[in-house]
Amino acid sequence: MAQHASTEDRSVPAPRTRGWSEDWLAVVAGAAVFVLALGLLFGSNLLGWVTGPRTWLEIGKSVRPVSSAYAQVDALLLLLVTYAFVLALMTAAAALLGMSIPKFIAGFTLLYWLSYLSWVLGNYAYIAVTTPAEMQRLGLGWSLRLTGEFGYVLALLIGLAIANLLPTAARWLAEAARAELFIKTAIVILGGTVGVKAAEQLGLASSIMWRGLAAIIEAYLIYWAVVYFVARKWFGFSREWAAPLASGISICGVSAAIATAGAIRARPIVAVMVSSLVVVFAMVELLILPFAARSFLGEEPLVAAAWMGLAVKTDGAAVASGAITEALLYGDAAARGVKYSAGWLVGTTIPSRSSSTSSSACGPSSSPTSGRVTSSRGDRATACASARSGSVSLSSCWALPQRS
Fold first, then answer.
1. What is the mean pLDDT of residues 67-80?
2. Are 325 and 294 contacting, i.e. CB atoms less than 8 angstroms apart?
3. Are residues 400 and 328 in the same domain?
4. Are residues 208 and 265 in the same domain?
5. Helix (H) or strand (E) segment spanning residue 396
6. Same domain membership, residue 276 and residue 153
7. In which domain, by residue range, is 239 found?
8. Which residues make Cβ contacts (< 8 Å) with residue 261, sequence separation at least 6?
9. 70 part of a folded domain
10. Element (H, E) at 63
11. How many folded domains does the chain comprise?
12. What is the pLDDT of residues 168-189, one digit of tens each?
């Protein structure tokens, strides 16, 4: 028995002591970028040199700086400077998390360029162009009309291929595939953008906040109860399975499922299976729901964006769905001669998503990246599953409470 206990102790690695959490690092990194962007208020575009893809037919013209002030600077040079800036920011975060810096830099470099390549390919004119005027300008006879956000789908497919077909490469990239850190940093930056837009148009911002309140009511008082009832009554699930499933679907996906499984002392396999189910469905929703919103909610863009935030149950997939929906609806509107202000749909997706993830179950203590959920009795068992919705790696491990 003593030998068994010793073996069990060794199976659970001791957590490393860290002075910083990913949540706080995301806040600091996102705030740093946002503060630099505020230089525009004082007549200085401190981030104007950052490059992004444009709709292209010739690969040499596929990227450009965000500010025309840098239009005469070589695009390749600015592209490398952008990479160096992002690398320095994320490497500083990795150092504060106690990660291996050489491994992180090597893995992050590959992840960055794969992601950027996906972004550029998604903006290829025959894929991205949506309006007749732009097709005429570029001399196109046809286009798939998928918008530049199709690059997110390409990144998803590349990630699925690497994680499932190249497991050795996936393990090598695991040190750098900090999906939670990247997503949270982006959400902080987007949140700052929402704040700026709110200052510009208080009426529209108030409407978005009301949608966030509606999201809280829907997630906690309606979705959870309905999913739990259906799982128990129609599918005959036990309470052990029904409760994590209801939390995963109604609140914040993987983190909520893990936290609920820990609270009710479910077996590790329950959290693993429910988390995997949530991620699989999130990927399917990312591919389908934006186009469904385009068909059924083309005249209700804010409703469509709130739907993405509530329905897609991982942060990264939800924000990507919001961005794809925005591009699709804005493109259709532009073809009709209607021009919407950019950023409002993604800005609506974020409060809707954040409202349904405001529970403590979605906090850092139960985040898949923080890696540990502890029951009140302190029992732990390691459970690994494919449940990270990052752009490349889908594997992650958590320490889950063990059923007594």
1. 92
2. yes
3. yes
4. yes
5. strand 395-400
6. no
7. 201-404
8. 243, 244, 268, 270, 271, 274, 373, 400, 401
9. yes
10. strand 63-65
11. 2
12. 999 999 989 998 899 889 888 8
